[in-house]
Amino acid sequence: MLKDAEVASPSSKIGMIITLVLCFIFAIIEGFDLQSMGVAAPRMKAEMLLNSTEMGWVFSAAVLGTLPGAMIAGRIADSIGRKKVFISCILIFGLMSLLTPFAQQLNTLLLVRFLTGLGMGGALPIVITMVSEAVSEKYKATAVSVMYCGMPIGGVLTSVIALSLTADHEWRHIFYFGGIAPLLLVPILIFFLPESKAYLNKTATSPAKNQSLMTVLFAKPRLLITSSLWLSFFGTLLVLALFQNWLPTLISGLGLNKEQASYIQIGFNLGGSIGVLILGFMLDRLNKFVIVASVYSGILLSLIGLAYSNSAFSFTLFATGCGMFVIGCQSILYTLAAKYYPTEMRGTGVGAAVAIGRIGAFSGPLVAGYLLGTGQSEIVVIASSIPMILLAAISALILLRKPTHSAEEKDNLKIVTT
């Protein structure tokens, strides 16, 4: 049996570079849209007369849409190919982002954001799959981390644009940009993005078997893998979504002004970019167990520091550290998900993990909105995420005790040859 790294090697360096560059650009656009609602929220909330609980539902609507998006798109991508599904998802979330500022009623806004999430959720597991299949096994973590680095860069871009907006009604401009950019990317992807060579080779040599979803995810070799991945995704994405959506509001509640809030948001995302690159590079070269344990320890310390910060400087410092560890950790989980499922079911496996993670991301903003709505302090909101990070850390460390699918294939090959 050929190793996945051999199958996944692209026919030329040009095809690999094109795939990585286009996926990186997409990651910037999705990162921008993921945080656009959080940045626009204070002005939108005042204009539409929404309370904290209603804003929690607005934040969570897009996240809720990512659940079926990730699951369905990943499953379809394993059947008909990565490229077609990827482009369709980008088209959906671009159109819906563009429609967001035109929503006048709460129910309409919730529907538009749900459909935005449907497209975003479908695109994310496919882009992770395509990037991991574009490079050899040795560089998967580095490649996924470089791609995922675009997410926090997009978040920084959101904050930069927010700083340039002077009038309160100009929050709409954030969504104009967030909708037009992916629509402009679509024709470029149609003409230049190559289909995954790993997928093409796998379907040519052994056509995909029509395995049920339960078999793909919970067959005996993958039961513990899938369960551990799901818990890790859930807890980590809960914390990430809470901060992506509520950080500007939490900062304002602590008495800091809008300009300080924007700079703290930039620090959170810049820290994430640095963390993603460094941790992805380290994951390919050093002991994975030690790295993952250290990253989750860093998240815990950052959360505790944020909860007890009493100045703009300390809040910025710990927000940057939190971004570095929690965004970097999410990149690590995406890499592990791609490593633990073979080519013929990678879209399904990664999509399911992303979907379960989005349940955590859906819960995070709602919990924050509920706590703030009942009069709890910003410190309580931040501290409430700590138990979930502990659960995610334990699950990730259990996962690392299992071999990846490529390691299992090596062992099987040794048995056959002897």
The total tally of domains equals 1
- Radius of gyration, in Å, reads 20 Å
- Coarse morphology: globular
Main sheet characteristics: none
How many beta strands in the DSSP annotation?
A: 0
CATH class: Mainly Alpha
Q: Give the strand content.
A: under 5%
CATH topology: Growth Hormone, Chain: A
Q: What oligomeric state best describes the polypeptide chains here?
A: single chain
CATH A-level architecture: Up-down Bundle
Low-pLDDT parts are: 1-10, 407-418
Q: What's the CATH H-level homologous superfamily?
A: MFS general substrate transporter like domains
The level of helicity is over 70%
Query: Helical region count?
Result: 18
pLDDT averaged over residues: 79
Give the structural class: mainly alpha
End-to-end Cα distance, whole Å, is 14 Å
Order of helices and strands: HHHHHHHHHHHHHHHHHH
Task: Please write out the topology.
Blueprint: H1 4-8, H2 13-48, H3 52-80, H4 82-99, H5 106-134, H6 140-148, H7 150-164, H8 172-192, H9 197-205, H10 213-218, H11 223-253, H12 258-283, H13 288-307, H14 312-339, H15 343-373, H16 378-383, H17 386-399, H18 405-417
Helix pairs in contact: 2-3, 2-5, 2-6, 2-7, 2-8, 2-11, 3-4, 3-5, 3-15, 4-5, 4-8, 5-6, 5-14, 5-15, 6-12, 6-14, 7-12, 11-12, 11-14, 11-15, 11-17, 12-14, 13-14, 13-17
